[in-house]
Amino acid sequence: MSYLNSLRLVFSGDFQADVATANNDVRHFDNDNFQARFQLPGENNVNGAYNPDGGSSFLLQHTYVQQVSYPDGRVLTNTADDIVIGTAVTSPADRLSGKLVDLDPQMQLSTEPWGVKLRLLAPDGELLLEGDVEPSGFRDLQVRQFQPPPNGLPLGASWITVLTNLHWTDKAKQSPFLKELKAKTDDDKLSLNLTSFAYYTGHTDGRFTIGKIIGTLGPWIEGEPEQFVPGRRLFGISNVGADTNPAIPFNYSNFIVEEEHKRLLLDLGGSFPVADTQGNIDPIYLKLGVAKAAFNQPVSTAPLLITPAEYLEIGVISNTHQPGWLLKTGGVVSFQLSQPVFQLLKDHQLLLIGKTPEGQERVIARESVGGYLLRADAHVFRLDPGDEERSKIYAYRWGKPLPQAKISLVLQPPVPIDIFSDPTLQGPIPLTGTPPEALLFPAELTTNNKGFARITIGGNDPGSPRGYVDGQVYYLNYSLAEVPVQDKYPFDQFHVHLRDEFDIPQNPAWQDIAYTLKQYGNLFPLMSRFIVDLGSEEAVKKRRDILLFAFTRKIKDPNYMPVTRDLSAAKRKTIVKWLKRLDDDSIQDIAAAESEAAKVKKEPVVAAAGDLDLDDYQKNMARSKSGGKLSFNIVLPFAAE
Amino acid sequence: MIRIQTAILDKVKNATQLDQLHEFLQYAIELEHSTIPPYLTAMISLKPEKNREIWNIIHSVVVEEMLHMTIAANILNALKGKPVVNKEGFVPAYPGPLPLGIRDGLIVGLEAYSTRVVKDVFMEIEEPENPLNFPVKSAAADNTYATIGLFYKAIQEKIAELADHHLPGNPKYQVTGFFDEDLLFPIKTKQQAIAAIDIIVEQGEGTETSPLDGEDELAHYYLFAELYHGKRLVKDGSSFSYSGAPIPFDAAAVYPLAPNTKVADLPAGSEARRRAHEFNVAYSKLLNALHRTYNGEPDFVKHSIGLMFDVKLKGERLAEIPFPGKAGFTVGPPFEFVDVTF
Question: Which terminus of chain B has fewer Cβ atoms in its 10 Å neighbourhood, N or C?
Fold first, then answer.
């Protein structure tokens, strides 16, 4: 079970993601070639992209509980029915908000919230429930707006994670829903889905760096994944763009079948195309069916027609054009299943069916071929040489755990990931994924009787392959032989930042930390302009106490400087050691020549002709996410009735 | 100078029980805090990397005001009172009189830095009872008001008179750290409370014979006088004079903040208004964090540190935004206490 459950709570409103963007182009990490213009805002990733002065805050604003649903089918929307309805979902009133942090300049597609706390507050200000959002990289990045969006970014994505360290107050006992949720969930955790869309990268509508967010909260059950829905998936196969520039509505949606209730729950909250920045939806005819025979067509620009004889109908998805439908319902649709449908759906694909403008039925999305789902739980790692990280990969078929599934793991070959970079800037892009042998992982795994396989990922010193930027970033693919490549979110991978080996000097000198601090100052102009010029030894010394404070926080502390998560433990400790030494006047800085960092800077490994690259779809998604714009201007070719 | 109603001083003097001092220590917290928004506004108006010497001087005063606010809270806790720093009305409405001030006294607003503001507001706020030797202005003889120094002295005398050696508050509520131990120390005894009040008065006013405080640093009034005269105050024979190194001021490197910006003055739906509100949220969260810090969770101070930087950053980003409909002005930090829930 997960947030996608008959027992669930939906909240929605605004979120702010004040992400810093001067670090979007990996070449900006090269201190020797840094230019002042990289700190200036620019469109389409030029210069410091849309928000170089970002402070990385991530928080909810004006976000309220909209409704709660029960296993018996009741949906309550009035505070009179349950005090939890209408409560505000907020950040803490007395500490910094959390931060939104990329793994690496060459992997900005599994961005995680850190230090985020959510609180449900009754209108009188009294707390009902509080918990910590466990960091989790977003997935299922997909197009939500097919017309040039006034906000700038046409994409949305979802974070599925758990809320931990739960604090249920006495007041929560007044909410029948919360009582039932507390009784049903396991182990001091709740399953949480946060879905974002209509994010403003431009200074319009007063909403710069603001977007819409839908949250869904449900029980978490022991033994199940924390960062995705243990269930089934619908994949969009109707490409309304071009082959080389795909635009796929309803691209990724999760669904489950609750056997005890004979109920289908489909989450369209992260995939439904929206008509405006408030999430309103244009009239569209949609229905659900179960394919009688395998429906395995790949993504197509031509309509994939279907006749009523080829499927069993589940029902029409209605009311979606009502104002505010998405924000009120969270986009989850629910259907009671007739016995024949229930039986057929046990091992046949779910179909999302629309109509062409001419009235012919066409398949918009279908369940994965064979009903397979393979997904890793925790998938974003920061790794120092010699350390290990653990996760689990789960396999399902038709929503049931799949034992003895053979999973192969293959490193994405070295590619120059330039998708986040300034198109006007010359200069080579470092290769990612090299040297491949530095990342340690099993080539093959088999799921156990419970349908999952444990994985340990480790690493050796990558040897500074990118020169000016620490360590290396690896994209590690995992797959089942049975699943066609398109039936997978293309960034369903492990993303690992493996740091360079670094020996903490006995007596660190300024030269040992200067390059790193200067880099931070360059990439976070907010820090260098307003707090401390990190390129200046004198300035850093003056702000010793506050820097020491910041560099010694725990990684989940909102006071932790977001950028510090880029640092290996050894480099962080070196900075701390240097700052602490400032106390001791008897120690003189050692000569630069003796210091570790005075070694000649290595040149990055760059691509040679003929090297592989990401596919167009991956590139489009990534470019658009980082401020570039997809060139869509598409009236969806689906009938309204 | 801030002219305090003599009636308040009389009430302090008439106290017969320690808990009758709670109200006045709460006023002291409010008063110490109330000087911070005007000073921070001036700092925020100084463009990044410009006018840093001026910025540093005001910053040193702000840090001490924060220290004084915390000392006052520690004393109140030591007397078993409950500091409140996050209620409606804790933040004065600017422009207006500071807490405890007499009605026809000094009016303090939130304005960009200028030598006029330094002289007419900052030096007035910090003016000692008897400015030493090199008066910029002498106070007219008037017995209808008292000074901050006298107010603190009255509290100090009352504690000396009424308290036992061990003060009644919970010692675990004392806030320490982030300042030298001889400036911010746990207040558990009568002597510690008396010493702590001396620190507040000396840092603000200097000693009665020198512009320097007990740490041999200039008292606030003289620091601001340095800014006004544009020169450092240095020893000059047996006395001092404003004849030291010049303190450069680049008037062009100051954001033209709209004085006393309020969120309500900004157009609904504008980015400027939203950001001004976000400033208020950060500032109000800071007061909420300090409230917890002062009320039994001294370790919570770590959360206030990050928020202080957040207030600063949000204020500085705000200062760059042109004030919609007010040509020639940018948006000032509103410093309004708001419900941070939404």
Answer: C
